[in-house]
Amino acid sequence: MSAADWVVRLAYELEESDRYRRVKQAVYDLLENPHSAVRPYFDLFMMALVLSSVFLLLYSVKHPLGAWADTFENVVVTLFILEYLGRLWVYDSVHGHIIEEYEKSELINEPFRLRRALWAVVRAKWSYMTTPMAIIDLLAILPSYRPLRILRLFLLFRLFKLFRYAQNIQEFASVLKEKRVEFFTLFTFLMFILLVGSSAIYLFESPAAGGQVEGFFEGIYWALVTLSTVGYGDITPQTPEGRFVTMVLIISGIGVISFFTSIVVSAFQEKLGEVHDRQVASLLQKKRGYTVICGFGRVGEVVAAYLHGDRRPFVVVDHERDKVDQARRLGYWAVHGKAEQLGMLRKLGVGTNAGCLLCLTGDDVVNVYATLTGRQLDPNIQIISRANHHRTLDKLMLAGATHALEPFKIVGLIAGEYIGQPVAFEAIHGIVMGQQDISLEAIRIPEGSWLDGRRIEEVPLSELRLILFGVITPPERESDHVKSHYDLARRRFQFNPGADFVLLGNDLLLVFGHRYSILRLRHRLKC
Amino acid sequence: MAGRSTQEVVVAGTGLVGLEVARQLCDRGERVRVVDHDPRRVEKARHLGFEAEEVDLADDDELERLGIGRDVDILFSLLEDDARNVFLVISARALDPEMSIVSIAETQETVKRLYAAGATKVIDPYQISGYKIYELMHRPLIAETLERTVFGKDVDLEIAEIPVPKGSFLDGVYLDRLGLNTAYDLVVLGVVDRYYGDHLIFATDPKRHKIDVDDVLVVIGPRRELERLRRDLEGGRSA
Predict the structure, then answer these.
(1) Identity of the highest mean pLDDT range in A219-228, A447-456, B200-209
(2) Helices (DSSP H) in A335-467: which residue ranges?
(3) pLDDT value at position A61?
(4) Half-sphere exposure of A18 (CA within 13 A, CB side)
């Protein structure tokens, strides 16, 4: 068996091995997976390690340390090396590359070439090793190698490792990265000024001309100190020409500093919303069963206000900036973005943590699309959508909405009822909308409570001033004492049950009544 | 809901809301006229089968030509702009102090303004929709029950107003002693006594209320039972 055959077989064995996959996943969770539960603890531990090792280094400048410090250093470095190798390992899959190469060569009927497969592996790993974070990791390890002790300075690179473990700092870096074109322009300009300034000062202020600048390096040092508006004053221009150069340099220095400041400020101003959005997304990861409200129009606003009043967690997403700002002013979690994007809903936890999705924008296309997306991400999530046009209702149900409702149809219904029977409609409407002290409530009869197995006439309805609307029971319950019943999705509504109707545990009494009456009945059922 | 006289209804505005309301009113057998200032929208409404007219709603003369102030009983002001709704409501109220005017509002602020302008009833579709959604999430069983019974389409259970005729068997009975739930399979929510105003006196009100002529009972029940009660009341029979 050739080496190539052996490698391919090993690759397939690894591919099939469940244990290998599990171990790799565990390492991935520990080191890289931003959603894993252990990762924050690992990051904190590594931060502590970095800080203590750098602290020891600084302490040892003046105080000799014992052998235990070396041991500690060795432990730290070992952990760093393991971490580095671990990250290199989980970055991609070596056996995957080999299998891919092998299958490719099988497909086009060519002999499998091990060298090419290995080259692909090396290329992939190299691309990881050249990322800035990987380089920092390596630099944090290297100085411990004895022949390279002069690189002790690089131990300070360990501090850069903190970047890796702190999300906020990474965000900071990513914001600045967006402005690299501006920074590059500034850098070029700075280099140009520095070159001109230092050459000029060296020419005019050399000791021969009566100045203090002894070499070209001193010229650069002086130019930078002046340009940055720091101006130590250890080297000062003596000749009129030198002073002229200084003045020019000071003026351009002000320009450079203000340009730099404005780049940083504008970068953060532009990204402030995004930073906020990311914070909301990471906060959401800690919650379960919250509601995602797409569209903060009037309907969204009303729902949000009710949920807020109930202290139920929810997040708002809208594509209009001022709507998002408005939601934030009200103290809600809000994210700016288009709900119809697949990535957006997933970012908000649809498919993982969210329990309910509300598609309430004024645009039916967006609502249908968001409903469909939500249903694809999570077959079990509750989706309630708004149809602005009466033809959209069916489309929403087809797209997978649990409920769909038409605000304008409701106006029609109310208008129609209003023409016919204004008083009756106002009354029931007020009750159903919770605008009056009288409300319609469902009261569950606990199993084994004093009402379990009793007849309706034994419920103290008139004593508590309640009106019985009906009883919700399991769907198969038949009774001679009910004249009309209505089937719900999984239950049966028994309208106006007679005095001899027998209540069982887990039945729901639907009663109209003052909220105090309802509270009293609930309270009695608990005793 | 049967047994109503035909009224003169005008729906102003042919946006989504206006057409939806007009459609539902037509389905209930009302004679509805739809008006708008935009000729293209009027054309579209006509195309959909409505009796549509082009009217400048900011002009009082045109409103009078429509019959406001004379034979229009109910005006629905369903324009898509709050300010124009308020203006129409004020103009119409000035022409006819008696007419019912129903309007819609985009915001809570406009609701107050419309009532001040003289609207009889202001519907806030967003508030209602928002509350319905909240109900669906937080009390799904009640929302589902109402949807399948009272508020849904093609359902048998209805809310109805039953006026009490003179000399009927309900005249002079106490509200909590009606016994309609056993005799008719109806649930009595309460009564409106015109003497005390238009609001509903709930059936469990601690002050015992005696039913008399011209009181209106508000009851929920299957259509056939409601019909039976109406027949019995008109026939002067006792239960």
Answers:
(1) A219-228
(2) 342-347, 364-377, 392-399, 407-420, 422-432
(3) 75
(4) 0
pTM of the predicted model as reported, rounded to 2 decimal places: 0.66
The CATH number covering residue A299 comes to 3.40.50.720
**Is B189 in contact with A427 (Cβ distance < 8 A)?**
yes
Residue numbers in A near B28 (CB within 8 A): 416, 419-420
Q: Is A494 on the interface with B (CB under 8 A)?
A: no
Rg (CA), chain A: 36
Q: Is there a single domain that holds both residue B103 and residue B23?
A: yes
Q: Nearest 5°: CA angle at A427, between A426 and A428?
A: 100
CA B112 to chain centre: 19
- Which residues of chain A does B27 touch, with a Cβ-Cβ cutoff of 8 Å? 416
Helices (H) and strands (E) counted in chain B, each on its own, are 9, 10
DSSP A87-98: HHHHHS-HHHHH
Nearest chain A residue (CA) to B150: A428
Q: Among residues of chain A, what percentage have pLDDT more than 90?
A: 15
pLDDT in tens, B138-154: 888 888 787 777 766 66
CA dist B93 → A34, A516, B101, B167 (Å): 63, 41, 8, 38
ipTM above 0.90, yes or no: no
Same domain, A154 and A13: yes
Residues of B in contact with A293 (CB under 8 A): none
CATH assignment at residue A463: 3.30.70.1450
